[in-house]
Amino acid sequence: MKKNIILLVILLSLLISFGCKKDAQTVAMQGIVNSIVGTVTLKRDDLSFRAQVDDLVVAGTTIVTGTKSIAFITFGQNVIKLSENTSFSIEKLESDLNSNTQQANFNLQNGEIFSKSNKKFARGDSFQMRTPTTVAAIRGTEFVVLERDGQSKVSCVSGKVAVANTTLGDNLRFVEVPANQEVQVVSGQPLVVTDISEEDRLRMESIFNDLRNMNFGARDEEPVEEIVETPVFVPEQEKPQVVRKAQPRRKPAPKPVAPAPIPQVEVEEEEKEEVAWTDIDTEEQETDSETLKLDIKRISIESAKVKL
Q: Is 131 helix (H, G, I), strand (E, B) or coil?
């Protein structure tokens, strides 16, 4: 009896030790706000605050973008772009170190997301995206999920996506959506896979080109401020050559020529001269008058002589 009790205690200890060890191998993962345009809000634990670059996002976080606003959220080698007027929640985000697998469950209440993964999915990895009408099991590296007015659309750009309509009952029937195809999910209706329209394909390709050029994991090593402020030196041979056109030499503007001085008319002097000429004429007139008088006097004397 005593021996049985000892064995039972040892067995319970092993079970407890094994259970604790298993729990310790499951660790919570976290994402990071990589880039923001416009107004983005984070909601967690009944708190709501304005998102900023380098903010951490964990399970239980809801990310909301405003009008003309977008957000880029990175999870290791995965990046998700949230378009404007989008509400997106992280329900589960953890890694099992024993099996080296990851489990990620997301919920898109409204809006549109673009997801890009640089990590090849391993056996046991779980990546699910839910909407009010849809559950999508992701096996592709590039896909788009749209939720508007109770209708969902899942588009696969590369890889594969398994989609089920949750409004058809508890027994989910998944439909496989290959690359360059999509499925419209309407409440109570079966799923029909169609080709992505050319217009949507070009739009998606442009957005995914931007996501492919993103530097995954760069923010975990270096904050954005240091990246921005670090000067970038361009090698001499790569510097663009600036062609300067020869500018014609401008002739110096001619100096302004002072106008010729206007001769001053000496009115007073001319008046004096006129006065002087007037005096001369008066004197001559007086002289002639005296001469005339003398002549008359002489003639009178001579006439008197003749009479005598």
A: coil
Residue 215, CB-side half-sphere exposure with 13 Å CA sphere: 8
DSSP code at position 110 = E
Q: Spell 115-125 as b/e; 16+ CB within 10 A means b.
A: bbbeeebeeeb
Contact 89, 62 (CB under 8 A): yes
Residues of the chain with pLDDT under 70: 1-24, 119-122, 140, 215-308
Letter for the amino acid at 109?
A: Q
**pTM of the predicted model as reported, rounded to 2 decimal places:** 0.62
- The pLDDT value given to residue 283: 52
**Of residues 107, 82, 92, the one with CA closest to residue 29:** 92
Residue 63 near residue 40, CB atoms below 8 Å: yes
Alpha helices in the chain (DSSP H): 2-24, 198-212, 218-221, 224-229, 267-307
Q: Strands 126-130 and 101-117, how do they pair?
A: parallel
Nearest to 158 by CA among 121, 125, 105: 121
Name residue, tokens 């959220």: 73
Q: Give residue limits of the domains in the chain.
A: 26-222
- 3 state DSSP class of 168: helix
Tell me the per-residue pLDDT of 202-261, one tens digit each, with 9 for 90 and over.
Answer: 999 999 998 888 765 544 433 333 333 334 444 444 444 444 444 555 555 555 555 555
Query: Out of 2.40.420.20, 3.90.170.10, 3.40.640.10, 2.60.120.1440, which CATH number does the structure's domain 26-222 have?
Result: 2.60.120.1440
Q: How many angstroms separate the Cα of 119 from the Cα of each of 57, 86, 107, 139?
A: 20, 25, 21, 11
Contact yes or no for 179/188 (Cβ under 8 A): no
Can you say how many angstroms the Cα of residue 63 is from the centroid of all Cα atoms in its chain? 20
Neighbours of 145 (CB within 10 A): 26
